[in-house]
Amino acid sequence: MTVNALKAVALRGVTGLLLVWVSNIPLVAAAEVTELCDLTFTGNIKLLNVPVARTWPQQSKGLSYLDDVGPGMLFAYESAGTLSFWMRNTWVPLSIAYISEDGRVFKMEDMEPDSADYHLSEQPAKYALEVMQGQLERKGIAVGSRLENIECRARSQRE
């Protein structure tokens, strides 16, 4: 192979790698959560500054790859449906609460880190709330509790 042919092959390889890298930038940017919500449950129980995942990229990333999940994450869907979650690439144990369209917590479950097990809502849910394992119980949120209010705002650069 001539020197020019080697240069052409190398240039194509570098160009291909750059295209792959650049093509992933919008997906990474689209996965960034841009909204925080304050959640109020029955009995004036509050969870503050909870990131909300509304888009497919945000929801598919969720709390994966984090050592500290902070206040957790609220997954909000346009319409209620049967939801399925797993813990692949999620490094901390979590609890999940499935919430109906009328705000009722109808199922809660603990989930183990980096597991391929599926966690199904088994009935239509409009929201799913993931938090550090045990936090729902510590806060007093249980099956039958109601999500009474959600106040959201744009996430600032500092948050």
Automatic annotation (TrEMBL):
Q: Which PANTHER family match?
A: UPF0127 PROTEIN MJ1496
> Which InterPro entries did the record assign?
DUF192, Saro_0823-like_sf
Which Pfam families does its entry note?
DUF192
Protein name per Swiss-Prot or TrEMBL: DUF192 domain-containing protein
